[in-house]
Amino acid sequence: MEKATLIFNGKKHEMPMVKGTENETAIDISQLRQETGLITLDVGYQNTGACTSSITFIDGDKGILRYRGIPIEELAEKASFTEVAYLLIYGDLPNKEEQQIFSQRLTQNSMIHEEMLRFFDGFPPTAHPMAILATMVNSMSVYYTDYYTEDFQAETFDLMAASLISRIRTIAAYSYKHSIGHPHVYPKRDLKYASNFLYMMFDSPVNPYVPDPDIERALSILLILHADHEQNCSTSTVRLVGSSMANLYASICAGICALWGPLHGGANQKVIEMLEQIKNDRLTIRQCIESAKDKNSKFRLFGFGHRVYKNYDPRAKVLKEYCEKIFKKCNYQDQLINIAMELEDATLKDPFFIERKLYPNVDFYSGILYRMIGIPTDMFTVMFAIGRLPGMIAQWKEMHDTVPLKIGRPRQIYTGNNLRHYVPMEER
Length: 428
Ligand code: CMC
Description:
CATH class of the largest domain: Mainly Alpha
Radius of gyration: 23 Å
CATH architecture of the largest domain: Orthogonal Bundle
Number of domains: 3
Distance between the termini: 61 Å
CATH topology of the largest domain: Citrate Synthase, domain 1
Number of strands: 6
Strand order of the largest sheet: 1-2-3
Order of helices and strands: EEEHEEEHHHHHHHHHHHHHHHHH
Strand content: 5-15%
Oligomer: single chain
Largest sheet: 3 strands, antiparallel
Bound molecules: carboxymethyl coenzyme *A
Shape: globular
Structural class: mainly alpha
């Protein structure tokens, strides 16, 4: 294979190339420092591959997203969320028997330790659900200790993975019930993943939960579309934390915290708040766009732009089409949809957005669908976390399956003071 050549100080250094199955090519710079004393600088990792991975393929220019080779559009149309979780973690779609074992493991691990219920009482009523989620997931590492060992082991990993995928849904629903002062609802063994979550969220002795297949499918689609997105901010955090051999619960907790930020998963909450602000303050679409373009204004158009997608976000495309279909079918009205459509139309014609290749991303449409399902706005990012969990787990496993496990440890270019000495207080 070809090699890349770097000429530094008149001396040639050859570096091997690495090619992926979709012909993505990288220069392997792992020996660069030993040979030349140089490091590479890439703030925000805009151009740095941190690993090789066989889980998810993205072509940002063509708007392609595939899990283990299967297009996201096919999975959104035909698969169940637990099938997709299995696909991501274990590499292939499950056969009937594998699916049965996996589902059984999820059911067996769906309840949370009763003592953990007391934790909910410790949070103030204003606590953000993402703070609660991260805390509770980390707490799982003290309640389900027999599931993990220092060495990564297949049997305990299977249990830990199922424990997380199943319990995160219970934790999220309990946190909502607690926030509205209602008693929690235990999971039911005969319900499927999305239905069980909705049941725990919305069932009560006075208002029994009435299943609606359209709503349940809408939720499954949302979870599937979020299930993995290769080396994004939160997944990279999971890998980085896991690379120190921190346990899976702790690594996922760190990923959840990274996801919370408004530039990442937190954008879905911000989008709805932004659309509500436009509606309530009677802002014009032009005013919004001008504020987003103004470098002195803190206003950003949430739900627009992406580090990788420079054509369109395939997840947003699936969601937009699905929203149009389901809203018509259910005769669902929401003023925010019209505002969102107007905003999208206007940005697609605006040179600032065209030049910078800023298109609606997954968070632009997901919030509108969560609203229809009845999820409160401050829980949108929790929904993103539930969806993203299988991907985070798959990436953590892939890293641990790769021998040897390398601790993540970037370098830096130091720009601080040169050597100077301590000055006693009275002389300062
Ligand atoms: N509104 C206004 N201007 C924007 C926006 C936006 N949403 N996004 C990017 N820009 C501008 C930015 O100011 C910059 O302009 P200039 O070149 O004049 O300085 C240019 O576009 C490039 O932006 P960047 O911030 O350097 O791009 P990035 O790749 O570092 O950031 C991003 C990507 C997603 C953080 C950013 O587009 C953004 O902040 N978007 C809004 C938040 C959002 O919707 N996040 C969800 C992302 S999708 C879900 C997920 O996977 O996390």
